[in-house]
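Researcher: Quick one. two chains, 229 residues in total.
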Amino acid sequence: EAQVTQNPRYLITVTGKKLTVTCSQNMNHEYMSWYRQDPGLGLRQIYYSMNVEVTDKGDVPEGYKVSRKEKRNFPLILESPSPNQTSLYFCASSLRASGNGIQYFGAGTRLSVL
Amino acid sequence: KQEVTQIPAALSVPEGENLVLNCSFTDSAIYNLQWFRQDPGKGLTSLLLIQSSQREQTSGRLNASLDKSSGRSTLYIAASQPGDSATYLCAVHFEGGTSYGKLTFGQGTILTVHP
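Model:
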């Protein structure tokens, strides 16, 4: 079954404690990205990756890092989380970034930073 | 600025009604438009993808249309059921811009279908 898998699904942490949210897809997709969803602001792109070792900033990259060492994995790293990063996070993937394909989304990770 | 707007923000209908959700976008230069469903506590499920060159797509009781020139899309749901209750999101992949592959989302329409 085609899937985008995020872990953990729920996370409560404290300010400044580094954390990583993992994302994995089993569809051999080249393109992966991260979004955050906030009430009144909708979904906004954080970072994206066109392929292995190719990453770039989206609309709201401040306070986040990503890496793409393998095609299937695209972890989101918060080096020093702050309360304004409390949000619902989604990982997405598609075959390519060129715009022809469906983008598949993970189930989401709800993060609370105290 | 490339933006997506959805109307109405919320909709409540009795079971069995046919309904239309609206999506408008500010730039007609798009690759595609995708409709998603979001259930509470769950991720986004892709319902329909309409390529720029297409006018409509159908899947079961769902039909999505695209009028690129006027910057509009509609999602038609026939014979609605309580299980259709969810938030429906419209997302546009605009051409150009600095962020490849980015989807620009509307705020969503919260649909409630009551028995």
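DSSP finds no helices and eleven strands in chain B.
Researcher: Thanks, that's what I needed.
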